[in-house]
Amino acid sequence: MSSKDKDNNTFNKLKQFFRITKTSGATHRDRNYFPISAELERELQPETPVGQRCKALKDLSEDVIKYRLEVDSVQLLWHLTKDLIVGNKSTEQRHVALNFYCKLIKGQYDNLKLMRAQFFRVIVSHEEPEDIAYRLEMLKSLTENGKNIQYFEKEIGSFLVQWISQIDQAGLIVPLLELIVNLVKYNAASLEKNFLVGIVNYIFDLTCRVEDTQTILLSLTVLDCLPGYAIIPNEILTLFIVILCRTVNREAYCQTSWKIMKNLFGTALGHATLLTMCNILNDRTFYRDEALLRGAIFHTNMGLWGVSGSAILNCPPSIVLT
């Protein structure tokens, strides 16, 4: 074979190689990207019959989970479908759209950008009672269950304080408490004092009227996060202590309650906590609250003498007698 033939053969092999690479690259793109076609846009436009639009959204829901959309497609889909969640639409139509948004957020999470703020505004402003579960699911998806609050750091705390009673009435308090645990762990620096005050107040109310073990334990888990990740405001310290004094009497919560109190003793509020419990024990208005007094005695004893005489607080035991 001549040198010219060898060169041609090599050239043909290179052409074949790059043709394969180009083809496989196109296949890879087709497999991972989902374009919003002109036909799909027409199906989703407000002028299209609503039944057809809902069917298109249902079909599209799985695609937005599996494939990546092109740039600005999330915003486009929002503008095409936002009229479906207004109050004059039927419950079924709103649920189809809200369910689609939940899947859109999950599937396109890394590409949401400023649409994060828009979806949060939907969660806040959409007030149809039948849709509250979808709003909560959207919030869980949008925040990665409380871990990411980018673009609405300043708004989420006040919103949750306002919303928690509605969530409780809807029987959805457990998933919201799980979200709040992560919210405190991952975003404590962004949470304002009013949020901490509001949440502790509501947890106090929960522990007074709810018997469900899971709910109480999750409420205590929220409290458990506060000494380690946030600064407990002085105005809720007494309420915080009262919750722990009452829950420590129940076997299901005793260890958790003591663990939280032990952590509280180890903070700068440790001595203030002990003084607060001493004041509770000396206050005649609490004399009929046996659970509170018994819990205060337990925590005070454990703080001063601990297990096997190992004290947690560095102060003389006589302080409780003054």
UniProtKB/TrEMBL annotation:
Residues 52-308 form the Tuberin N-terminal domain. GO terms for biological process: negative regulation of insulin receptor signaling pathway; negative regulation of phosphatidylinositol 3-kinase/protein kinase B signal transduction; negative regulation of TOR signaling; negative regulation of Wnt signaling pathway; regulation of cell cycle. One of its GO terms (molecular function) is GTPase activator activity. It comes from Culex pipiens (House mosquito). This is Tuberin. PANTHER family: TUBERIN. InterPro entries: Tuberin, Tuberin/Ral-act_asu, Tuberin_N. One of its GO terms (cellular component) is TSC1-TSC2 complex.
